Amino acid sequence: MFHVNDLFVKSTSSIGAEEKETLLHGLRNLLIISAIACLLIVFFILNNKPPDPYVEKSLNLNGAIEDGNQLFRMNCVGCHGISAQGLVGPELNKVTEELNDKQIINQVINGLTPPMPSFEMDPQSMADLLAYLHSLNN
Ligand code: HEC
């Protein structure tokens, strides 16, 4: 049978636990939200680095595939193979699908991964080289 007293006792004893849980949920959500906010701020700062003028210039120029091919033969085939099939260095036929242009430019000019040397070339040559690398995965 139904007793009013039972209901009263039950509901008062469970309110404390429920409130605690809501409070914990609230705190957890707050933590998650602030963590996400921190990450967003970090990404925002990283993405707003002043653009590298050399990279920007190279990206804005139209490259000529044939000139890029010549540059590649002179500078890169020794390690990446005559048809970019890979030798000492990895094959580059699909590299434009794996790396974006900025990453490729950095790889070429910074020599961050020995034994690949760093290359100095004018932005037009870089644009040509990029055009050639893009032509490889067609
Ligand atoms: C002395 C040998 C050598 C020469 C010359 C060389 N590379 Fe490399 N390259 C490498 C090696 C080794 C790697 C792999 C580095 C690594 O594993 O981190 C590499 C990596 C790369 C990558 C990154 C590939 C990837 O999948 O991450 C690119 C792009 C690249 N080279 C482009 C070039 C271009 C363009 C030239 C010519 C201008 C060139 N390389 C000349 C040895 C060379």
UniProtKB/TrEMBL annotation:
It comes from the Bacteria. The keyword Phosphoprotein does not apply. This is Cytochrome C. The chain crosses the membrane at residues 30-47. Residues 63-137 form the Cytochrome c domain. The keyword DNA-binding does not apply. Keywords: Electron transport, Heme, Iron, Membrane, Metal-binding, Transmembrane, Transmembrane helix, Transport. GO terms for molecular function: electron transfer activity; heme binding; metal ion binding. InterPro entries: Cyt_c-like_dom, Cyt_c-like_dom_sf, Cytochrome_c550/c551-like. SUPFAM superfamilies: Cytochrome c. The gene is cccA.
